[in-house]
Specification:
- With 89 residues, this protein is mostly helical.
- It contains three helices and no strands.
- Helix 1 packs across helix 3 and helix 2 (46-65) crosses helix 3.
């Protein structure tokens, strides 16, 4: 599979969005009963949060297996993967 530069840029942005979702769900969970309705996933159960994070991290891990990445920075994405694995284990 060969992606265009635009496709790679869009995929990287989607990965960053996925990392943001993971970070937001974990942050909301960490707030516990202090979470408010403006916190992403505040009304989810713990199992629902784990499922949401698991779906997002699965996508990130799949994207990382693709071999046509160029100079994209994966620092935030890699940290989200590590945090998601810890959260869902």
């Amino acid at each position: 599979m060969t992606r265009t530069a635009d496709e790679i840029a869009k995929a990287h942005k989607a990965c960053l969005d996925g990392a943001s979702t993971i970070n937001s769900v974990i942050a909301t969970h960490t707030k516990g009963s202090n979470a408010v309705d403006t916190d992403f996933g505040y009304d989810m159960t713990h199992d629902e949060k784990k499922a949401r994070v698991a779906r997002s991290v699965s996508y990130l891990k799949y994207q990382k297996t693709l071999t046509d990445w160029t100079s994209e920075d994966f620092t935030v994405i890699d940290k989200a993967i590590t945090d998601a694995d810890a959260f869902t284990s």
